[in-house]
Fold:
Amino acid sequence: DVKVTQSSRYLVKRTGEKVFLECVQDMDHENMFWYRQDPGLGLRLIYFSYDVKMKEKGDIPEGYSVSREKKERFSLILESASTNQTSMYLCASSLLLSGTEQYFGPGTRLTVT
Amino acid sequence: GDSVTQMEGPVTLSEEAFLTINCTYTATGYPSLFWYVQYPGEGLQLLLKATKADDKGSNKGFEATYRKETTSFHLEKGSVQVSDSAVYFCALRNTGNQFYFGTGTSLTVIP
Structure:
């Protein structure tokens, strides 16, 4: 079974802190994604990566950066956390192969106070 | 641009009722279509998928048929159970390797 793991299920940080969210997948997937999920807004894509050291901005990249140094690991960084970044963060991965689905991690619920 | 529109919720049904959640899409070419389910406090799980027109995806009693002519992929189940209570997301993957999601439909099944 494909497994996507995220470093924390719950995280509480203070405004202005630098926050790292880690995601690891074990199925050699080329694509990796970071979304945030907010009530009434569905999933919004923050960044994605289709290869090591490659990244593409999604719909809402402002205030975030990412790092992909190894194929299996995709990190989301909040350079200076703000209260409006309180959300559920979901990581996903997929094969590059057309028609294949994404696999999601369990999510990290981040609260910024 | 490409997009997915799904039925607004929340939906509340009695156990054993028939379920339909509507989903329509906009995309060029022939996208692949998916239904995901999200249980409380968890990530999304793939429920079913279809990769070409007229394909029917099915899993756990749920079904959806890829209708190119109506650009739809409606989710159905003949008899829902309390354990089906969750949020359901319709999604597509286009030929450009991009994924698009609907906003989700919350389903509550009452005994």
